[in-house]
Write a structure and sequence with these properties.
Layout: H1 4-20, H2 25-40, H3 43-59, H4 65-78, H5 81-93, H6 99-115, H7 118-135, H8 140-154, H9 161-170, H10 174-180, H11 182-201, H12 204-211, H13 218-226, H14 229-244, H15 249-266, H16 273-307, H17 309-318, H18 324-339, H19 344-361, H20 366-380, H21 388-394, H22 403-426, H23 429-438
Subcellular location: Cell inner membrane
Protein name: Tripartite ATP-independent transporter DctM subunit
Pfam families: DctM
């Protein structure tokens, strides 16, 4: 007869096996959880636990924010706001070495301010920016590395669906997480842009091609920058409303959707029913996938709790006679390694029930830790073997660009991201200054 702790270990092993053989993450959570629960409880109570998890995933009002933010990103794509963000960023960087790469980088940050979707930003900017960069002589690895990496920090700039999911697993403030992500997200965009500028400046062929481009006239530059006013209006309204307490994060997502609909209709983007229906279909598909993962994740977390593995692990790590920062580094390493093989929601569901009490028990701020984990899972989104952003970009690139080319291209940006991660760990005020000031 297996003891309850052994069953918990089996539960974790089964999940990794199912993911390793290619079973989708949602069913992997459910199947491994059910098998383990049958070993702890009888079949009837195991199914009752699964049904209860499904109900709490759908019935809890907090989860309503997720489909609304997914719809917000879908409407932003269909309304052409990504192209407006790119044109505005291109106007800002016009005439500089690596201007199109910098524009892609800054444009992804601007688009992130209304979509909060890493994969969406990667796919859209891959279609818009890659042909221009290739025409200007950018090495294909450098060009695709810029695009795949730019998508990562766009998910950190609020509103971010992953921050909402983190908040639901850790009972932290969504508003606090939103504002905590602003400075790290902008810092990432600035440092990436500096690297692109320096690398382009060292490439004589690329600089020569860029000098052949006519610089934007002041009037044209001002007009292109002004095109981003809908993005700024939506972002300021949503974040301003949350900060002032006029509406909750869920209500801010609904208001953002309404604003994009009105602006998009006024500018002629939603006058065809197909544009709106495409946004609704994509959002429904994504929401279904996310909710299936959530149901499986919550069920899996409850099974782990039954096995007492999280409690035992927490007590063991908290009582280790090592500096707390060593434990944080160990946890970060686990997130980093899992980011190479799992989707972010799955990582949060598997790890947060175990590590959140540890981090809190060591005296660290869970909002700060939310920014750290976001940076870690987004680094995982561009690292092999399962780099979601890399494969999303491959889907929109020409045949002469391989997955290997993209992984090689993101290498320098991963190193930069790790340096930024070290800064965020060493200087928590980079994440906490703004939420502490505002709240």
């Amino acid at each position: 007869m297996l003891d309850i702790i052994s069953i918990g270990i089996i539960c974790i092993a089964l999940l990794l096996i199912f993911i390793g053989i290619g079973v989708p993450i949602g069913p992997s959570f459910i199947i491994s959880g059910l098998i383990s629960t049958f070993l702890i409880l009888d079949g009837q109570r195991a199914m009752a636990l699964l049904i209860g998890s499904a109900h709490s995933s759908i019935a809890a009002p907090s989860w309503v924010a997720i489909p609304l933010f997914i719809l917000l990103g879908g409407l932003a794509v269909q309304s052409g706001m990504a192209r407006k963000a790119f044109r505005s960023a291109d106007a800002l960087s016009s005439g500089m070495p690596g201007s199109v790469g910098i524009a892609t980088n800054l444009g992804a940050a601007g688009f992130g301010a209304i979509s909060g979707a890493s994969i969406a930003a990667t796919s859209i900017f891959g279609k818009m920016a890659l042909p221009e960069m290739r025409a200007l002589g950018y090495d294909k690895k450098f060009a695709t590395g810029i695009i795949a990496s730019a998508g990562t920090f766009s998910a950190m700039i609020p509103p971010s669906m992953m921050f909402i999911i983190y908040a639901l697993f850790t009972n932290t403030s969504v508003a606090g997480l939103f504002f905590a992500g602003i400075i790290p997200g902008i810092l990432s965009a600035v440092i990436f842009s500096i690297y692109i500028y320096l690398r382009a400046k060292r490439d004589p062929a690329m600089v020569k091609r860029q000098k052949e481009l006519p610089k934007m006239a002041p009037v044209e530059r001002a007009k292109a920058i002004g095109e981003s006013w809908p993005i700024m209006l939506v972002a300021v309204t949503m974040l301003g409303g949350i900060y002032t307490g006029i509406f909750t994060p869920t209500e801010s997502a609904a208001i953002g959707c309404i604003m994009i609909l009105i602006i998009g209709f006024a500018q002629g983007h939603f006058r065809r029913l197909s544009s709106l229906s495409n946004a609704l279909k994509d959002s429904a598909n994504t929401t279904s996938m996310v909710f299936l993962i959530n149901i499986g994740a919550l069920f899996y977390a409850k099974v782990l709790a039954l096995s007492q593995v999280p409690t035992i692990t927490t007590n063991y790590l908290v009582n280790l006679e090592v500096p707390p920062i060593i434990i944080i580094i160990i946890i970060c390493l686990i997130f980093f390694l899992l980011g190479m093989i799992m989707v972010p929601i799955g990582i949060y569901a598997m790890i947060l029930p175990i590590v959140a009490p540890i981090v809190s028990g060591l005296g660290y701020d869970l909002i700060w830790f939310g920014v750290i984990t976001m940076k870690l899972v987004e680094i995982g989104a561009v690292t092999p073997p399962v780099g979601l952003n890399v494969f999303a970009l491959k889907g929109v690139t020409p045949k002469d660009v391989s997955v290997t080319d993209i992984f090689r291209g993101v290498g320098p940006f991963v190193i930069i991201d790790i340096i930024i991660l070290v800064l965020l760990i060493a200087f928590p005020f980079l994440s906490l200054w703004l939420p502490n000031l505002l709240f």
